From TrEMBL, chain A:
Entry's Gene Ontology cellular component terms: plasma membrane
Lipid bilayer topology: Multi-pass membrane protein
Stated name of the protein: ABC transporter permease
Annotated Pfam families: BPD_transp_1
């Protein structure tokens, strides 16, 4: 799907470029010709926007991470330069290792869960049945709830004594699980809630991808005996791959920086068992007022997301090349 | 011909697209005129009724008294400090600023607040703990009309049924809580959450036992930690406490799932809403006979930011004097279930508000969180709640917890 849509404009520009190069068709134009100025003017707003809202914060964050930036700085404007001291503080802190590990576990498990359930639901909704549209719309609900509301609700659902989940499991004889109060299961609980939040995103994109697979392929496959699991393996999956890569990479970038759900559910506890790099960054900046250290944490996070963004761009380009 | 109009049109469109950027660049706000002190700005975080309306009434009264109009901006409690920092970097701080008392020294250390002595504000007659909270490097930067603290609430009916009296010592607390634990009901509830709230709830036990935040690894602090661990391990307090905020604790108490709770007087309006609930309150229990129950002091302090406008600052100082005067204290105290910060008002206040007797006694000896450590308090608070969490989840022993937590 991606390959088709991106191929078309690329081909047309290549053709028009060839035509412009032939001297007979048009006289040579100077760079400042009206048409070029207009083109540049069209790019300027987007460029300004990028500079203002992406360039400035990123640059400011980089500078801030090399400064002793505290509450005082806001009033006096003074922020002594400390070089890489903040990064040393971050990496040598006791919580850095566990937070990094938790970030990885949180991201991988969340993505795996969201994707598996999302794909299953997308396939389910792909066979149009009565009420399927309505149910699919209902599935978007987690997306519509403000995360702070969702996490407050989940907090009461997951309460050890009176939470509805433990009450429900109790009817099957399962002993009360200390979802948010035991360091052994708190991360799992947070991951489960994040999976719940992420399912609509996965279902929506994957459902769109499934809709784009021509029905003829399945009909032809059926004649050759590819039905059920085989149809999925040899028809659905290969055709869905471009969408899958988009879903996974965007999912990683969205999940790695998740903050509100964790703050709302556990605030990094119990006993620091749900600390992630994003939570550390928030707490250093807005709880301990160590903005320099907080900026260092967030830059580490940015670098990790950047790696995945590059993978995404490369994967996309490969799809175009194919 | 046709092509030319098209390029002209597209050029026009491109210009139009840029226009907003250029226009907004010129639209920066100018400085407010100085010298005219007839209108002041004020910022606080009472964004929910009834507090919002009650504070508004008190503000209006003082504004009328000193002859100014006051424009009030209310922000959610969590956003206040961020807002203050933003406003101080853009030099748009309000003329009167309310701060939660443990934040005063942090903000005063930035140089963003004016000492009240600059404007001859009378700071005599206030409780020492409250003055300590508003003091940074020997100068008082803010005053509070009323204060709150923590105490032990108990369900009168549940205790009477079991033939028990409210506990006064840790030993009694343990046995009473254990006796009241049955079925769905726990003996006691407190908040041991991984935020400053958890540290704040632990302080009454730590301080009453003679412990201090300056030396976290002391035997006194460990004893207090051991008490919490015993209470949780014996099942007298739910393990859920590890993730409960003080609002959750109140819910547990009100639903009858906890017979006693550690909480503050700001919960009283909610408790009184339930006519069937009979509750009483006492000061926090002590470890050994002879100790003084010592709880942390809560409450909001009103300050004068350095706005550079002397005339307005002087008016703001007049406002703070009025807002923290005796009659305002008693009025706000009885409406909001908070205790006047002038000890001389205690008798008059308790006569009016018998429900608040134990809290008024508690306030007399209450201590401010930042009195010893100032701007370093957040670090100690983080270490305290981390140590609590480590112990209650069996990740560290009582002996090691504070040392491990201090490492960060």
């Amino acid at each position: 799907m991606t390959s088709l849509s991106t191929d078309a404009p690329a081909a047309s520009t290549a053709r028009s470029g060839k035509r412009a190069a032939t001297p007979e068709s048009r006289p040579r134009q100077s760079f400042w010709a009206r048409e070029n100025i207009a083109k540049i003017l069209f790019v300027v707003p987007a460029g300004l926007y990028m500079l203002l809202f992406f360039g400035y914060p990123v640059a400011k964050n980089l500078v801030m991470s090399m400064q002793d930036y505290t509450t005082k700085t806001f009033f006096t404007g003074e922020a002594p330069w400390v070089g890489f001291q903040n990064y040393i503080t971050v990496i040598s802190s006791n919580l850095f290792g566990p937070a990094l590990l938790n970030t990885a576990l949180f991201t991988i498990a969340s993505i795996a869960g969201q994707f598996a359930i999302g794909l299953a639901l997308a396939c389910f909704f792909n066979r149009n049945f009565p009420l399927s549209r309505f149910l699919r719309a209902m599935l978007l609900l987690p997306w519509l709830l403000p995360l702070i509301v969702a996490s407050a609700t989940w907090r009461s659902i997951l309460d050890q004594d009176s939470g509805i989940l433990n009450q429900f499991l109790g009817t099957f004889g399962v002993p009360a699980i200390p979802w948010l109060t035991s360091p052994d299961v708190a991360l799992l609980a947070v991951i489960l809630v994040n999976i719940w939040v992420g399912i609509p995103f996965n279902v929506t994109l994957l459902y769109g991808g499934l809709q784009d697979i021509p029905a003829e392929l399945y009909e032809a496959g059926q004649l050759d005996g590819a039905t059920g699991w085989k149809a999925f393996r040899y028809i659905t999956w290969p055709n869905l791959r471009p969408v899958v890569s988009v879903v996974l990479i965007l999912g990683v970038v969205y999940t790695i920086k998740v903050l509100d759900i964790i703050l709302g559910l556990t605030n990094g506890g119990p006993a620091n068992s749900t600390q992630t790099i994003a939570v550390r960054s928030y707490q250093e900046s807005f709880v301990n007022f160590e903005f320099g250290v907080g900026a260092a944490f967030s830059n580490i996070l940015i670098i990790i997301s950047l790696v995945f963004a590059v993978i995404y761009l490369r994967a996309n380009r490969r799809a175009v090349d194919e | 011909m046709k092509k030319q109009t098209k390029t002209r049109l597209s050029k026009f469109l491109a210009m139009a697209a840029i226009a907003p950027f250029v226009l907004t660049a010129c639209g920066g706000g100018g400085n407010s005129a100085s010298g005219d002190a007839s209108s002041l700005t004020l910022m606080d975080y009472y964004n929910n009724d009834p507090d919002k309306a009650l504070i508004q009434t008190a503000i209006d009264k003082c504004a009328a008294d000193i002859g100014v109009t006051i424009t009030r901006e209310v922000v959610p409690g969590k956003d206040l400090i961020q807002k203050v920092l933003q406003k101080s970097s853009s030099k748009t701080l309000p003329d009167i600023l309310m701060l939660d008392n443990p934040d005063v020294q942090e903000i005063a250390s930035t140089g963003g607040l004016a000492p009240l002595s600059d404007f001859d504000v009378d700071t005599s007659g206030f409780a020492q703990g409250m003055l300590d909270a508003g003091t940074y490097e020997g100068e008082v930067y803010g005053l509070a009309p009323t204060a709150n603290t923590l105490g032990l609430f108990y369900n009168k009916k549940l205790l009477a049924d079991a033939g028990l009296k409210p506990p006064t010592t840790w030993e009694e607390l343990k046995t009473t809580a254990a006796t009241l634990t049955a079925g769905d009901q726990y003996g006691l509830a407190f908040s041991a959450i991984a935020t400053y709230e958890g540290a704040w709830q632990f302080l009454p036990f730590m301080w009453t036992n003679g412990g201090s935040e300056t030396e976290l690894d002391s035997p006194e602090n460990k004893e207090a930690l051991q008490l919490w661990k015993d209470l949780i391990d014996s099942g007298a307090v739910s393990k859920g406490a590890i993730n409960w905020g003080q609002g959750d604790v109140k819910d547990q108490f009100m639903s009858g799932k906890a017979a006693m709770m550690i909480n503050g007087p700001w919960q009283i309006p909610a408790l009184n809403d339930d006519a069937a609930l009979e509750w009483g309150s006492v000061q926090v229990p002590v470890n050994k006979a002879g100790q003084t129950p010592t709880a942390p002091l809560g409450g909001e302090v009103w300050t004068i930011p350095q706005t550079g406008d002397k005339a307005k600052q002087a008016k703001a100082a007049e406002f703070i004097s009025c807002f923290t005067a005796g009659d305002t204290q008693v009025a706000l105290g009885s409406e909001r279930y908070t205790v006047p910060t002038k000890p001389e008002l205690a008798k008059e206040y308790v006569a009016k508000m018998p429900d608040m007797e134990s809290f008024t006694e508690q306030i007399a000896n209450a201590r401010s969180r930042t009195g010893n450590l100032g701007a370093e308090w957040p670090k100690a608070a983080t270490a305290i709640y981390t140590a609590i969490q480590l112990v209650l989840t069996d990740k560290a022993s009582v002996d090691e917890a504070f040392a491990q937590a201090a490492k960060g």
